[in-house]
Input
Amino acid sequence: MPELPEVETVRRTLEHLILNKEIVDVHFLYPPIIDGDINTFKENVIHQKITAIERLGKYLIFKLEKSAFISHLRMEGKYLICQKEDHISRHDHIIFELDDGHELRYHDVRKFGRMKIVDYYTYQKQLPLCQLGPEPFNADFQQVYQQLKKRHIPIKTVLLDQSVLAGIGNIYANEICYQMNLHPETPANRLTKKRVQELLKVASDILNSAIEQGGTTIHSFSSNGIDGLFQVQLKVHMQHTCPLGHDIKKIMVHGRGTYYCPVCQKARR
Ligand SMILES: [Zn+2]
Output
């Protein structure tokens, strides 16, 4: 599942490829991808230029001249830039025809992704974006500390809660706990103020470093599509040993595969 850095990479890549192109038509091959009425969606996007592509947490926001829509890739959604005559896959669900003759296709094997028209100016205050917490980069430390104080559940689980911090998924939650030498099952409310400050710093650093690594791939996307997935150097997630050579343990925390180093991550506060 793409997390903040991967979605940011998709954003930058699309910006590079389709900014200022006009949408001349749109086709709905699998309409449930659109949250809401497809005719309304069509009326809102047709004959409009894509003027900006923004991101909030794991959401992409496509800004057009007079309207805007959001897109969430969920598990496996991706964008393809195709020629009109290119074979249409059964996993291509929404097709935007662009004025330069290309097509922007939304491709999603699992069909979990969604697009929705939002208000151009107030989308941040509308559902679902209004439910997002701040991203680690600009989070108010006191606010996050107060949120963690209220939660007795594992810190790893809280890191996945988009209403506390937006953008972190399973992979980076595992990596953040490792970087802090923190046991992933530590109750969130046991973190001291100092540790919460450290958490925001570590989360920002890890996400920024992944964004930088993704940035190097922006110009090299092929026909495989734009899903933002790239090879990031991970220290514990899906690894056998940690950087210090200890064996990694995999446990389930709140139903999610959690990788940690029992030697490095003894700290429970
Ligand atoms: Zn270790």
Observations:
- The helical segments are 4-18, 38-45, 141-149, 155-159, 170-179, 193-215.
- The radius of gyration is 20 Å.
- Residues 242, 244, 246, 261, 263-264 surround zinc ion (CB under 6 Å).
